[in-house]
Write a structure and sequence with these properties.
Distance between the termini: 53 Å
Order of helices and strands: HEEEEEEEEE
CATH class: Mainly Beta
Structural class: alpha+beta
Radius of gyration: 19 Å
């Protein structure tokens, strides 16, 4: 009887370890993107600051959260009518850690934007094409919130 119990406990432990390892790997990839970024418009071969955009904070979730491989983000745009806040979440591609999908949800007026992101290096994220803003980059700011 104890051999059968030990067999099934071994299988259960193996499954639990596999799930925990996959969650940890997803969190490790998500942490590559964590930090505070400033938006810049790509203008030919150079960039210039996006004047209406605030800094964007990408915060990783916890290992025990529902989706540990997803980051939450917050920023706002300055408009003549005031601040236009938006939340977003970033889902890194686990098979290609330098690529991610970002979904931006503007609060008022409600609008949803989906963006593809590419990590050029640990300090630079590029959005190759985005209908509303065109091509732009997010440049990591050093020393912000101890996330770099």
């Amino acid at each position: 009887m104890s051999i059968v119990v030990n067999f099934f406990l071994g299988i259960a432990g193996s499954i639990a370890a596999s799930i925990l390892l996959k969650r940890y790997q997803a969190l490790r990839v998500a942490r590559l993107y964590a930090g505070v970024y400033a938006a810049e418009i790509i203008d030919g071969r150079s960039t210039r600051p996006m004047p209406e955009a605030s800094v964007t904070r990408f915060l990783p979730r916890r290992l025990w959260s529902r989706n540990p491989g997803v980051l939450d983000a917050y920023a706002y745009d300055s408009t003549p009518d005031g601040k236009r806040e938006h939340d977003s979440y970033i889902v890194p591609d686990l098979s290609r850690p330098g690529h991610a999908d970002r979904t931006v949800v503007y609060r008022k007026p409600f609008e949803v934007s989906q963006q593809k992101m590419e990590m050029i290096d640990k300090n630079l994220l590029v959005t190759p094409s985005e209908p509303a803003y065109g091509r732009h980059v997010l440049r990591r700011l050093k020393g912000q919130l101890f996330l770099d």
